[in-house]
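ok, trying the design again with the full structure, not the truncated one.
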């Protein structure tokens, strides 16, 4: 597998901290609170921390549903 293919594979399944925060449109503090409470799982290898893309995507869907349910606007 070429380096480019490996990066594409990683991008398909994982997000970096910055990417996850931007995707969820939340503050760093809120994001790390979710991580510390076990709402979002992290994968750590050495100094690299990644998050499962499907978990982040599901979290965003859930948050949007709750905002609508409780009529909360950002």
């Amino acid at each position: 597998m070429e380096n480019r293919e490996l990066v594409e594979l990683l991008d398909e399944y994982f997000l970096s901290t910055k990417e996850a925060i931007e995707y969820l449109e939340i503050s760093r503090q809120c994001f790390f609170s979710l991580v510390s409470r076990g709402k979002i799982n992290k994968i750590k290898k050495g100094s690299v921390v990644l998050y499962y893309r499907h978990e982040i995507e599901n979290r965003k869907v859930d948050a949007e549903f709750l905002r609508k349910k409780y009529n909360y606007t950002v």
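Keeping the full-length input from now on. The chain has one domain: 3-69.
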